[in-house]
Amino acid sequence: MMDQAQSLRQLVAGQNRVINESGEHSARIITVCSGKGGVGKSNFTLNFALSLKSLGKKVLLFDADIGMANLDVLMGVTPTYNLYHLLGREAGIEQIIQIGPEHLPFIAGGSGMEELFSLSESDLNYFTSQISAVADDMDFILFDTGAGLSKETMKFIASADDCLVVTTPEPTAITDAYALMKVVHKSHPHVPFKLIVNQAFDTREADATSEKIRMAAQRFLQLDIPFLGYITSDTHVVQAVKRQIPFTMAYPNSVAAKDVRRLTLQYLSSQRPPAPAGPQGIKGFISKWLRRK
């Protein structure tokens, strides 16, 4: 069996051949956020990434939660390296990118995230070149951010091509999701939000939840927020978390898994090119995200 680094090198090499033959390519940068914790944001991000991959998309998953990184736990994977080792130049990009279920490449978060915001110019250029070596050849790069709205999360959201906001029908989750979008929109009116309702009892509850947020955004922010879809509350999700297997893999015929697949197709069909002033691929994203200006 080939080791992880060898597997990744072959993956990247194959992608490079496609890119070089097809011309310029720019990965779409997606941040996934929530107004509060406990809404299933990370679980959604993981299964959304796997759903994109199942449709033939090249996806890189980045655990960008500084305080509570847990994507590796949801996958049942113990990372050998994380971002800290890259920043300390103890390991290269091929080593810190771990391989999850269905050969999903991901970068473990936690240690190293805070250091990103105080890099020297030389270290920042090194980080950009390392990440670009792989990320520029991806179709999508998903950043699972921390819950709530820290200054770090604000930078992620403002720099990305899309921001998926995950909420639930709980009143506090609805209020916090709207508050997050309100604060971000005030400083960065260009951010393209898309709304996802998780843990909905049925279609009616999901529609009612999304309508509350969308109507408030239209009335007070003059902002039209597309409703991307919902995921039904499903006991299979809890069982999959306990097993540390993504629910789209553990229970592919479950209601929640079917909802994620439907939502993924809806996302792909609703894509729009980034605004000219927006980030262009991972280099543009990092420039906006971490540059001092």
Main attributes?
single chain; 13 helices; disordered N terminus; 293 residues
Walkthrough of the structure:
It is a single chain. This protein has helices at 4-22, 41-54, 71-75, 83-87, 93-96, 121-135, 151-159, 171-187, 203-221, 235-243, 247-250, 255-269, 281-290; strands spanning 28-33, 59-64, 97-99, 105-107, 140-145, 162-167, 193-200, 227-232. With 293 residues, the protein is α/β, with parallel strands linked by helices. The protein has a single domain (25-290), classed as P-loop containing nucleotide triphosphate hydrolases (Rossmann fold, 3-Layer(aba) Sandwich), CATH 3.40.50.300. Helix 6 packs antiparallel against helix 13 (281-290). The longest helix has 19 residues, at 4-22. The chain is globular, with a radius of gyration of 18 Å. 44% of the residues are buried. InterPro entries: AAA_dom, FlhG, MinD_FleN, P-loop_NTPase, ParA/MinD_ATPase. It comes from Paenibacillus sabinae T27.
User: Count of helices?
Assistant: 13
CATH topology: Rossmann fold
Instruction: Evaluate the radius of gyration.
Output: 18 Å
Helix content: 40-55%
**Mean pLDDT rating:** 83
CATH-wise, what's the superfamily? P-loop containing nucleotide triphosphate hydrolases
Overall body shape: globular
Provide the succession of SSEs: HEHEHHHEEHEHEHEHEHHHH
Strand line-up across the major sheet: 3-4-2-5-1-6-7-8
Poorly predicted residue ranges: 1-23
How far apart lie the N and C ends? 46 Å
Known CATH architecture: 3-Layer(aba) Sandwich
**Major sheet, described briefly?**
8 strands, mixed
Query: What's the number of structural domains?
Result: 1
The total beta strand count reads: 8
Q: SS-based structural class? A: alpha/beta
- Approximate strand percentage: 15-25%
State the CATH class. Answer: Alpha Beta
